[in-house]
Design goal:
Oligomer: single chain
Number of domains: 1
Strand content: under 5%
Length: 193
């Protein structure tokens, strides 16, 4: 693919077509939060559970890639905007030291910290994928994480993960539908030419 001759809008459209607006990441996020919710029934120690949250974040990216392979979605596009998306997603690696400090200082805040900081890195995809869903998701995730991870901190390990798993699943479904609709429009436009 010759990306050099493509306009910015062409690059976005190509990435939406290839990457399906990144919805496999939301399937992986759904699984992560469901696993964290489930672990709450088996691990009594909140500090050990918080450690599982922390270590578990490393599973989301590989799981998303595996899901994308099964669903035949190209999340590793060479499209320059895909590379930019990878860099934006990689920002989360810099959150790890913050999460570790929070774990050491007050592990009860780990679910909130993962939720709020995790939400923040999704905002640029609003522009990349031409989807207001990313904006709604980011704001909703940050609010839910703050309310159920800080204000109602006693419920952080119970309510927050189930609420976020539902939010991730709904977002995956909406992005999948948006992608499907986008591809249909693109195919109609190609046939009309």
């Amino acid at each position: 693919m010759n990306y050099k001759n493509m306009t910015l809008d062409d690059l976005k459209n190509h990435l939406i077509f290839e990457g399906k607006k990144g919805y496999p990441f939301f399937i992986a996020g759904t699984v992560y939060w469901l696993v964290m919710f489930s672990l709450g029934f088996f691990i009594e120690s909140k500090s050990q559970l918080a450690l599982c949250y922390l270590v578990g974040t490393c599973s989301i990216f590989p799981l998303a890639i595996a899901v994308s392979k099964v669903l035949k979605v190209n999340l590793l596009s060479n499209n320059p905007l895909g590379v930019l998306g990878g860099i934006v997603g990689g920002i989360q690696a810099f959150f790890l030291p913050v999460w570790i400090v929070i774990y050491i200082e007050q592990y009860e805040l780990i679910p909130m910290a993962i939720g709020v900081l995790g939400a923040s890195h999704f905002l640029p995809y609003l522009w990349v994928y031409k989807s207001k869903t990313y904006c709604i998701f980011t704001i909703t995730m940050a609010l839910i994480s703050f309310i159920f991870g800080y204000i109602l901190i006693s419920q952080a390990f119970l309510l927050l993960p189930i609420l976020l798993s539902i939010l991730y699943l709904l977002t995956a479904i909406i992005l999948w539908q948006e992608s499907k609709a986008f591809i249909l429009v693109q195919e109609k436009n190609t046939l009309a030419k």
